[in-house]
Specification:
single chain, mainly alpha, Helix Hairpins, minor pseudopilin epsh fold, 3-stranded antiparallel beta sheet, 12% strand, globular
């Protein structure tokens, strides 16, 4: 199953002022496209061209680093675009999610502080995550393109802390970008969809 660059689920101006048109054009059209192109080439060479992106991520982890890097970043970005929307973020969460965040993560304020802390303290490039592991929500961070799939968890929310995700708009102020992501960009409906699929 060849990797394909998905269309953005909104136009390039939709996330302004929190994420600029310029950032989305570079991030989606250049960076994500490069992961797709290189991932397809390497997956075909490794005999994994017919596998799903999730299978390639899991199979290449620890065995084929370059393929893993590209496949994992493709997987991460497929969901990253959907984890954001115009008019997103804020404290009005779907009931089921709000309940899980209260019971597993100590409530919304603690979730927000802990996710921002995970993203801020990830040294260099990487991601901060909310995942379902053993039926419960957990917050984590990973380096580079690594994601919770390879650690026995199902990611339901992720935020990209590679510099290309925020440097045009926020320069080196990563915490400010993370705050804007939580307050103004998160697509809680898609997080709920992922949560329900992970807790079936």
């Amino acid at each position: 199953m060849a990797f394909e660059l998905p269309e953005l689920p909104y136009d390039y101006e939709a996330l302004q002022p929190f994420m600029s048109k310029e950032t989305l054009e570079f991030h989606h059209d250049k960076h994500h496209k490069a992961y797709v192109d290189m991932g397809n080439k390497l997956a075909a060479e490794a005999g994994m061209g017919d596998l799903s992106v999730e299978e390639v991520v899991k199979k290449s982890f620890g065995t084929h680093q370059t393929l893993f890097n590209n496949a994992a970043q493709h997987y991460n970005h497929i969901h990253f675009w959907k984890w954001m929307k115009k008019g997103g973020g804020g404290t009005s969460l779907p009931g089921k999610l709000a309940t899980a965040i209260d019971s597993d993560l100590g409530g919304y304020d603690k979730f927000k502080a802990d996710l921002i802390a995970a993203g801020t303290t990830q040294f260099g490039s990487g991601w901060a995550w909310v995942s379902v592991k053993d039926g419960k929500l957990v917050i984590s961070k990973t380096p580079n393109g690594e994601n919770p799939l390879v650690h026995g968890a199902e990611p339901i929310l992720g935020v990209d802390v590679w510099e290309h995700s925020y440097y045009i708009d926020y320069r080196n102020a990563r915490p400010k970008y993370l705050e804007a992501f939580v307050d103004s960009l998160i697509n809680w409906d898609y997080v709920l969809e992922r949560y329900e699929a992970a807790t079936k």
